Each structure stands twice: as C-alpha cells, then as structure tokens.
Automatic annotation (TrEMBL):
<dbReference type="GO" id="GO:0005829">
    <property type="term" value="C:cytosol"/>
</dbReference>
<keyword id="KW-0460">Magnesium</keyword>
<protein>
    <recommendedName>
        <fullName>Molybdopterin molybdenumtransferase</fullName>
        <ecNumber>2.10.1.1</ecNumber>
    </recommendedName>
</protein>
<feature type="domain" description="MoaB/Mog">
    <location>
        <begin position="196"/>
        <end position="336"/>
    </location>
</feature>
<dbReference type="GO" id="GO:0046872">
    <property type="term" value="F:metal ion binding"/>
</dbReference>
<feature type="compositionally biased region" description="Low complexity">
    <location>
        <begin position="118"/>
        <end position="133"/>
    </location>
</feature>
<comment type="similarity">
    <text>Belongs to the MoeA family.</text>
</comment>
<keyword id="KW-0808">Transferase</keyword>
<dbReference type="InterPro" id="IPR038987">
    <property type="entry name" value="MoeA-like"/>
</dbReference>
<comment type="function">
    <text>Catalyzes the insertion of molybdate into adenylated molybdopterin with the concomitant release of AMP.</text>
</comment>
<dbReference type="Pfam" id="PF03454">
    <property type="entry name" value="MoeA_C"/>
</dbReference>
<dbReference type="GO" id="GO:0061599">
    <property type="term" value="F:molybdopterin molybdotransferase activity"/>
</dbReference>
<comment type="pathway">
    <text>Cofactor biosynthesis; molybdopterin biosynthesis.</text>
</comment>
<keyword id="KW-0479">Metal-binding</keyword>
<keyword id="KW-0501">Molybdenum cofactor biosynthesis</keyword>
<dbReference type="Pfam" id="PF03453">
    <property type="entry name" value="MoeA_N"/>
</dbReference>
<dbReference type="InterPro" id="IPR036135">
    <property type="entry name" value="MoeA_linker/N_sf"/>
</dbReference>
Length: 420
C-alpha cells in the first residue's frame, strides 16, 4: 500500500507546465502570461479631451464670470477620431468631444456646462448643441479655465516601453482589455490543458435516458468534467464507455489526439468484469496501486500513446471516491500544467462539531461544511463513497490521519477547502 503523499509525489513528478503558445486575446482568458508584455506606444496615444466642451487658450478666460463672460470665436468642431484639426489662436475656441485630439494652440478644455454652448444667450448650457456641422460661431465662457484642465495627456496612463504585464500574470477581463488597448491581437500564454474525461461501466446510462434494472445514471463524467473546467482546463466529456476491451481501446485511441491528460473513472478495483484494468495495464501502460486512504483506495496512473506519452489517471468508480481523487491528485496535475504557483487546495485547521471515526491505517477524507466565522467544521453524510447527495452539500474535506481511529467532538482537524 502507498501513502497519499507518495502517490501525489509520483503523479506530480510526471507533470510539467505545458509549452507556451500564441493565442488570440479571448482564447487566452484565464491563462497565465508566458512573456513580459511591453507597451509599444504611449497611452493615451495623444493629448485628448476628457469632456465634451471647447478647447481654448487659458489667457482668454482669466477674467470670465457669469456676468461678464469671455466671448470667443468658434473656429472648428472636433469629433473623436478627427484627423484634421483647426488651430486655436487668441480669442478662439474649437468645439471638442470627449476623446477627441486637443488641437494645436489650445491649452485647456472648458466643459460645455462652463459655457453658453455657443447659443449666444450667455446662459450655462447643459449639453452640446445638436448640430454637428454648424456649431454656434460665438461662444461665451462663464468662468476661468486652468492650464491643462480636462486634457488627458499623452502617455499619462502607460508610457511606451513600460512593462504593463509580467510573465505569470493571469489574464482576466481587465488584463485582456489592456492588451487590446496597446494593440496586441495575440499573446503568448501557457494554454489550458485539454483533459479528456472518460467514465467506464456497462451499467451506465446517460442522464435523460431511462435507466432500467441494475443500471444507473453516469454522474462521474459530469462531476469530473466540471471539476476539470473549474481547475482551469478545457475538458471533453466521454460518458459511459462499456466494460469491453475492444471498445475501450478504440475510444482511448480516438481521444488521444486531443488530450494533454486523460482521466477515467471506474474499473480499477478487483471485480471480475474490470476488463478496464487489463486494457489500461496492457495497452495504456498504467500501474495500479492501493493507497492508504478512504475513500479512493484503488488508483491507477501512467502514460499512454507511445512517444508523446499522455498522462492518464484512472480513478475509482464510486462517485465520492472519484471526486476526492480528482481533488487530491488530478487537480494538482492540471494546475501544474497551467504553470500555476498554487497547485493544491488550501488546508485550514478547524474544530469538529461532531465525533469522527476512521479506519486504522487509512487517511480518511470526510465530507464537511466549514464555517469560517468561528472555524468550526461539521461532517455531512456518512463515510459511504456512494453518497452523492451529501457530497453536493459539502464544501470541504475533513482529514483524519492514518494513525487515528476516533476523534471526540471539539478536536482540531485539518480541513481541505473545496470552494474556488
Ligand atoms: N473485493 C473488493 N471490492 C472492492 C474493493 C476492494 O478492495 N475489494 N474496493 C472498493 C473500493 S474502495 C472502490 S472505490 C471500488 C472501486 O471500483 P471500480 O473503480 O472498479 O469501479 P466500478 O466497480 O466500476 O464502480 C464502483 C461503483 O461506482 C459506480 N460508478 C462507476 N462509474 C460511475 C459513474 N460514471 N457514475 C456514477 N456511478 C458510477 C458503480 O456503479 C459502482 O457502484 O471498488 C470497491 N470494491
Ligand atoms: O476507496 Mo473506495 O474509493 O473507499 O470507495
């Protein structure tokens, strides 16, 4: 028998970060950067207005008041995206929209609310006049405007040559937006591992179909596929492969091409129909071992597919065993392939609200609910590895060490937190 830690070490020994690839921005969401990204140009790329208003020279507004406005000649109209800009001289202003380039000669922008909007009334405007082609040709400015007011300076956000994101950064919405803003269409990242999830068992029926005598719905392929996605993988679900050597070989052969990792459930124990185990051992080069843990005792792992050798983890079929095995062994492999620094789930110390029992010589992982407020943890459901109802209520695993068979309520235990 092997310990949990020995098995984890062996499984991780064979795992490595996937080689970086160049991906389009939205395909790279959630991935880690494999390069330092530098800005090729300034952001903003040019001085521009942060308000709808009038670009002008500050000296012209020094004595402006509501009673005695400064009167300026409007010499042009600048929309965002404009490339031909009027020159603003003394006594002149140009109507300007938010984001539009500040024209030569202008030193500040007066928001439209600080002017009469070119209406000739001398009353403060609350919006730009609607006529784009013919802005009023005489503007009254109702207060002084300071040098640089409402101008977003070129390079004030990002300067050309700046490292804007470092290798290892995770690309979320705002990082992807920044990459787009500096003009990057693609980026070099560690890709998400492609995980093929395959559940074996002739008793399995897909959800939505009638079960019939002795048959059950395939739930593992859903749990494991969802868990792989939650861990950061791209996952492909192949549900319900019958316990038949030829079929299983064909399916494995077929799936190999699109997999960085294969995860199977079922057929790893000692049953008479566990042809799966034979196929994995002979064809796929998978070793089987029994671990000093409960649930999750029987485990297989190895590499399949000759040269390239895709790692394969064969998990036990009992649904709770399969899920716990995923969390303890498969998730760290996926996280390693992603190049994540945190490959393991966090473990906290907590006080159990109920007495716990555990088989001698096995590390037990009981399902529990953890209360961060007071550091208490309560078991949910029993020990049985078929209890999917209780599993769905749990948010943590309560660990009872190998050498402990009973713990009274109030004992301090290690708890593996399962929430993302
Ligand atoms: N004589 C022994 N019997 C068993 C031992 C043992 O040491 N000696 N180990 C037990 C333990 S522990 C486990 S765990 C299971 C592992 O069994 P297998 O990996 O061979 O899985 P199966 O026999 O195919 O199925 C076990 C159980 O899980 C259900 N199952 C399987 N696949 C799915 C699925 N995709 N969705 C939902 N449920 C699934 C299956 O119907 C069985 O009830 O072996 C024990 N036996
Ligand atoms: O180890 Mo099995 O996984 O106890 O149910």
């Amino acid at each position: 028998m092997w310990s949990v830690d020995e098995h984890l070490a062996d499984v991780l020994f064979a795992a490595a970060p996937l080689p970086p690839i160049e991906l389009r921005l939205l395909e790279a969401q959630g991935c880690r950067l494999a390069e330092d990204v530098r800005a090729g140009a300034d952001l903003p790329p040019f001085d521009n207005s942060s308000m709808d208003g009038y670009a002008l020279r500050t000296a012209d507004t020094v004595r402006a008041t509501e009673q005695y406005p400064s009167v300026l000649a409007v010499v042009g109209d600048i929309a965002a995206g404009a490339d031909e800009l009027p020159k603003v001289g003394p006594g002149q202003a140009a109507r300007i929209m938010t984001g539009a380039p500040v024209p030569p000669g202008a030193e500040a922008v007066a928001p439209v609310e600080w002017t009469d909007g070119g209406t000739g009334t001398g009353q403060a405007a609350d919006a730009m006049g609607g006529d784009q082609d013919a802005p009023g040709d005489e503007l009254r400015v109702l207060r002084p405007v300071a040098e640089g007011a409402f101008i977003r300076r070129r390079g004030s956000d990002v300067t050309a040559g700046d490292t804007v994101l470092e290798a290892g950064a995770v690309l979320g919405p705002t990082q992807l937006g920044l990459l787009a803003a500096i003009g990057r269409a693609t980026v070099r990242v560690r890709p998400r591992p492609r995980v093929v999830v395959l559940s074996t068992g002739s008793e399995l029926v897909q959800p939505g179909e009638e079960t019939g005598p002795g048959r059950i719905h395939d739930s593992n392929s859903f749990t494991l596929t969802a868990a792989a996605i939650a861990a950061g993988a791209v996952a492909y679900r192949v549900g319900g492969v019958p316990d038949d050597a030829a079929t299983l070989r064909a399916v494995l052969e077929d799936q190999l091409g699109r997999a960085d990792l294969i995860v199977t459930s079922g057929g790893v124990s000692v049953g008479a129909y566990d042809v799966v185990k034979e196929v994995f051992a002979d064809y796929a080069g998978v070793d089987f071992r029994r671990l000093r843990m409960q649930p999750g005792k029987p485990q297989g792992y190895g590499r399949i597919g000759g040269e390239r050798g895709v790692p394969l983890l064969a998990l036990p079929g009992n649904p709770v065993s399969a899920y716990i095995s995923f969390e303890l062994f498969v998730r760290p492999v996926i996280r390693t392939m992603l190049g994540a620094p945190d490959v393991h789930r966090p473990v906290v110390r907590a006080v159990t609200t109920a007495a716990l029992r555990s088989p001698a010589g096995r590390r037990q992982f009981l399902r529990g609910r953890y209360r961060p407020a007071d550091g208490a943890v309560s078991p949910v459901g029993g020990e049985g590895s078929h209890l999917v109802g209780a599993l769905a209520q749990a948010d943590c695993l309560i660990t009872v060490p190998e050498d402990t068979t009973a713990l009274p309520a109030g004992s301090t235990v290690d708890v593996v937190l399962l929430t993302d």
